[in-house]
């Protein structure tokens, strides 16, 4: 087995998805603790506190400075290398979240046991489904009164439409929480609040028949547990590795992240069963992780993260081969060969220069405005990875200059910011307007600030009568031309040069789609 093959096989690259407040940050912190990546609880939390103050731009800037260090968290655990990719917490940056999900091999879904399946979880799950991403589920906050476990599984199955396979099962809840039963290992893990559990100091009973267990949790509770387990095992699905890997079943764990309870069984199971890097599609062929040639794609760009350096970093997910410091790569879109000597990785709070990286790893490339989201880098063959989406914006503004002589700078700024995915940028066919599109309203503040700060352009954004956008495609060139002529008023060109329909109302969009059945109106565009 080559070095690349064995290193790729031990990588586990994933992201945590959840509705805000379900416990993503807390769980991240516990996973890092188990992985030895941080020594003390609290360090991830304080970053999050900075992130909450988004109304103040300086805080936002600061947050960007900090969040890059936690963008990718790598730690070793049980002979594996775990890469946890952070997803931005603020809903306005959810487009970024979606792109991060294209760079992982699996996901971990956190659900609050009192709230059940919430709105953002549903959306994120839909994104995971686009690529059949395998998902494990952690039902959190067991130390509080929540809904009945069976009811929660039913909700996941009916709302998220994915069969559940419980791996652990709670013994009581809230003030009556006694522990969890590990169904796969036939173990009972006792809940002892206030203790920072690690494998060594948690109390584990083997099987339900140990008389000491009855002494510990009480005969009545044990009796109820036996009955409940019989019911659960009859009504739920047994774990099926293939179904999980195909995204058709989710193994479910119960616990309390803040009490460090139920987290270790999750992590042990995760490193054992979660997929290592999988083959990835390009426009010409499928790339396997154990190929010798390095390849990867950029899924995120963060600019000016460090006010001292004013740099931009492009995050490249390695898909095959091995990266070595100083090696040459081809930037496929531009056709240029570049030597990458100083790629970054982001362990804990330090930026480090990486020596080597393998499939599943993420490296940060210094970027001076030439790299765009979706770009492929390889050590040779001109490949282009597919599947990194641009989402149709739901909010639109017309950019207006305060100083009309700055038009060139404005256009350049908007073009670059849209390359990064900070905003989307449209030029109507019939006017000289510059229209910005965003998925969340905070994006406009960021764009205005950065235009001023980085391009010295003062701009104002005004409302414009557009409600949504659709990328227009048609195999029949004649039909497309006819459509273009008849609808020129509502058509624009995006930053990548593609034709887009800017709908003035939803009813208008509906009618136009009905009127032009041979035209495809796509709500996402893949980065070219
Ligand atoms: P998020 O990243 O998904 O938004 O959630 P986060 O981890 O920040 O958790 C949201 C809140 O839920 C936090 O409380 C956190 O302490 C709490 N929490 C997380 N896991 C558990 C758990 O297992 N049990 C209970 N009871 N609470 C949990 P907060 O009041 O917002 O913050 P803090 O003051 O506790 O830091």
From TrEMBL:
Positions of the Tr-type G domain? 9-278
Q: Is Protein biosynthesis one of the keywords UniProt gives this record?
A: yes
Provide the coiled-coil residue spans: none
Write down the superkingdom of origin.
Answer: Bacteria
User: Sorted alphabetically, which CDD domains does this protein's record hold?
Assistant: RF3, RF3_II, RF3_III
Q: Which PROSITE patterns match?
A: G_TR_1, G_TR_2
Q: Which SUPFAM superfamilies match?
A: EF-G C-terminal domain-like (SSF54980), P-loop containing nucleoside triphosphate hydrolases (SSF52540), Translation proteins (SSF50447)
Q: Where in the cell is it found?
A: Cytoplasm
- Write out the entry's keywords from A to Z: Cytoplasm, GTP-binding, Nucleotide-binding, Protein biosynthesis
Q: Does the keyword rRNA-binding apply?
A: no
Q: What is this protein called?
A: Peptide chain release factor 3
